[in-house]
TrEMBL record:
Protein species of origin: Haematococcus lacustris (Green alga)
UniProt keyword Translocase present: no
A GO cellular-component term linked to this record: cytoplasm
One Pfam family in the UniProt entry: Prismane
SUPFAM superfamilies, per the entry: Prismane protein-like (SSF56821)
UniProt KW 4Fe-4S keyword: no
Keyword entries, A-Z: Cytoplasm, Iron, Iron-sulfur, Metal-binding, Oxidoreductase
Taxonomic superkingdom: Eukaryota
Gene Ontology molecular function, alphabetical: hydroxylamine reductase activity; iron-sulfur cluster binding; metal ion binding; peroxidase activity
GO biological process, one term: response to hydrogen peroxide
Taxonomic classification: Eukaryota, Viridiplantae, Chlorophyta, core chlorophytes, Chlorophyceae
Protein name in UniProt: Hybrid-cluster protein
Length: 661
């Protein structure tokens, strides 16, 4: 199973429960089997199943970082995956085609679990074998046959297919499985709860694996590195495609690609040489994911603009007003639209949180007079934000953190999001949310904040100077600079570049997080020369939008352009491409630098899209992905000049970017 998407916990103060992490991995394993069959059904039998297509998107979406922590929901997803697999298999057989044969053993899977195609159709007997094998392997780790020589130990471990498990399994699990193995083989005793717990705990531990340099060169690990890059990219594009699907926009080629990629992860073409796996099979497939994600981001952009109108620059209040209130966080504009319709005329104001801020730029949303403003900052500060909000809270997508008890009864999840012991809205009927908002006090003279509610940390942090620690308390911010709006003033941007009034354009966007190294982005914004422009998107904007940037001197062009959500990276690419056309060059030759902040799988999908387009010299921070081996990093550096952001020296990074380095 893949390692953690980040080398840091997915949320402050609340590590993911091992059971949920294991269920997420098991769901992805099942989805690989389902998509392998769906890919076969499409390419061999000409069979397409719309429910399977949509389910794979949304089930993948549910496994993204900080989307769903409800183990019961994942058990339901797994059961549905197995049910859909059987239905699709029956359809293939009914059409007169044999079911696909299982490919030969691949580096991705232990023989005990088998191929995902087999797992989805496994009987209880097969699962029993899995449990027995796991116990046997863990018992071996406690008593490796008396071997004392390191080489003998390694050879023995490889022989029983437990290479790599030794560093991953907790010591207590070794003891538990030693006893379970003894109980099975000596007393004939089997404990289903022990079986399930050990399996899930192993899944969870594998998710957070660390690899040493010696093992990083093995064919299996090289293969897995490429697989993780592909897998995380697929998860990200599935999230974007699910949003587009919710607005009625679908592209059959996207479903076909998703099935093909997940099938590839189950059967990587038989490649075994590490260089082939990384440089040829792995990277090529990952870049193909980037190409598909470009299609998806364009589709989502068109879905938003055709439904709600094109983004337009809009000033948004950060000060609440008296009245009952609902806070909407996440990314889903469709859900916000439905809530606005259902709350109209009911005396309830609606506020956006986190990456819902750009909603105020859509004409079809800002026409609702009770869309009152924006409250709070980036996702990782939501415990502070939500604890101070006197109304109901609706979570539409990631990121969500385990709630504090003081507001647990006020929060609701919907779509793929989920929290244990939190009410879930299974459709777009928000009666319960509205009812709770009317029960709560809302904003009034006793709890009205005296200063703006945005909780951005900006440049404050480990890198800050005393002057930088004085927060700018804006009462309004401006969002909505989508590519249509920016291209509307493209002639002014081109003139400013040609006349030397605008010397450089920076794209600083992506994910925010709690790590102190992310103060780099706010500090970078503070140091930008006055003759530069900054395009931002995603929750990284909260490191920047509490700063005063003003206009490019001698023009009416604002220096800070908030282009929208993370998926609106597409807008930045459209603008860059059009500028390149105007200057009869390519994007890499423009006075343009990309400094991307990443955290989760959607950011990986966007990165793969940038690499697919051949864009080079991208800075990625606060660190390069932990799941990339040195060999994989070297390939990305050699091919694309990808480099880590120098978070301890933003001033030096700024000088290098200004020099196109």
């Amino acid at each position: 199973m893949p390692p953690s998407i980040s080398s840091t916990p997915c949320c402050p103060c609340a590590p993911v429960a091992a059971e949920v992490a294991g269920l997420q991995d098991l769901l992805m394993f099942s989805l690989k089997g389902l998509s392998s069959l769906a890919h076969y059904a499409r390419t061999t039998a000409g069979i397409k199943d719309a429910e399977v297509d949509s389910f794979v998107l949304r089930a993948c979406f549910s496994t993204l970082t900080n989307v769903n922590f409800d183990d019961a929901r994942f058990q339901g997803y797994i059961s549905q995956s197995v049910r859909l697999h059987k239905r699709l298999a029956d359809a293939v057989k009914a059409a007169g085609h044999p079911l696909p044969t299982l490919p030969p053993s691949t580096p991705w899977f232990e023989d005990s679990t088998g191929h995902p195609l087999a797992w989805n159709t496994a009987s209880a007997q097969l699962l029993s074998k899995v449990y027995a094998d796991v116990h046997r392997y863990l018992a071996f780790l406690s008593s490796p046959g008396g071997a004392t020589d390191p080489n003998e130990l390694l050879a023995t471990a490889l022989a029983v297919e437990v290479a790599g498990l030794q560093d991953l399994l907790m010591f207590s699990l070794k003891g538990l499985s030693s006893l379970a193995h003894y109980a099975r083989t000596t007393a004939g005793i089997k404990d289903a709860e022990v079986d399930s717990f050990v399996l899930r705990a192993c899944f969870s531990t594998l998710t957070n694996v660390n690899f040493d340099d010696a093992r990083a060169t093995s064919p299996s690990l090289c293969a897995c590195t490429s697989a993780w890059l592909t897998l995380y990219g697929v998860k990200g594009l599935c999230a974007y495609a699910a949003h587009a699907e919710g607005l009625g926009h679908r592209d059959d080629s996207v479903y076909a690609d998703v099935h093909r990629y997940l099938a590839f992860l189950s059967s990587p073409g038989g490649a075994t040489d590490p260089n082939e796996l990384l440089a040829t099979v792995g990277v090529a497939n990952a870049l193909a994911v980037g190409a598909t994600n470009m299609t998806v981001m364009k589709m989502l952009s068109e879905a938003h603009s055709s439904t709600f109108g094109a983004l337009t620059p809009t000033e948004v209040s950060l000060m609440p007003r008296p009245g009952k209130a609902i806070l909407v966080t996440g990314h889903d504009m469709h859900d916000l639209h439905e809530l606005l319709k259902q709350t109209e005329g009911k005396g309830v104001d609606v506020y956006t949180h986190g990456e819902m801020l750009p909603a105020h730029g859509y004409p079809g949303l800002k026409k609702f007079k009770h869309l009152a403003g924006h409250y709070g900052g980036a996702w990782y500060q939501q415990k502070m934000d939500f604890a101070g909000f006197p109304g109901a809270i609706l979570v539409t997508t990631n990121c969500v953190i385990e709630p504090m008890n003081m507001y647990r009864n006020n929060i609701f999840t919907t779509n793929e999001t989920g929290l244990a012991n939190v009410k879930h809205v299974a459709n777009t009927n928000y009666d319960e949310v509205i009812k709770r908002a009317l029960e709560l006090p809302g904003w009034n003279s006793r709890n009205m904040p005296r200063q703006p509610t945005v909780s951005s940390s900006g440049g404050r942090g480990a890198l800050s100077t005393p002057a930088a620690q004085v927060a700018v308390r804006k009462t309004h911010v401006t969002t909505g600079f989508g590519h249509q709006a920016v291209l509307g003033v493209a002639d002014q941007v081109i003139s400013a570049l040609k006349e030397g009034k605008l010397r450089h354009i920076f794209v600083v966007g992506g994910c925010d997080g709690h790590e102190p190294q992310r103060a780099y982005y706010g500090h970078l914004g503070q140091q930008l020369p006055k003759d530069t422009m900054l395009l931002t998107m995603g929750c990284a904007k909260f490191r920047l939008n509490n700063q005063e940037f003003g206009n490019v001197e001698g023009t009416g062009l604002p220096r800070l352009l908030d282009m929208g959500q993370c998926n609106d990276s597409y807008s930045a690419l459209v603008v860059a491409t059009e500028l390149a056309k105007a200057f009869n060059t390519d994007v890499n030759s423009l006075p343009l630098s990309l400094d991307i902040s990443w955290f989760e799988q959607k950011a990986v999908a966007v990165l793969l899209s940038l690499l697919h387009l051949g864009i080079k010299n991208i800075r990625l921070g606060p660190a390069l992905p932990a799941f990339l081996t040195p060999e994989a990093v070297n390939i990305l550096v050699d091919k694309f000049a990808l480099k880590p952001a120098d978070t301890s020296n933003p001033d030096q990074d700024l000088k290098k970017m200004m020099a196109k380095q």
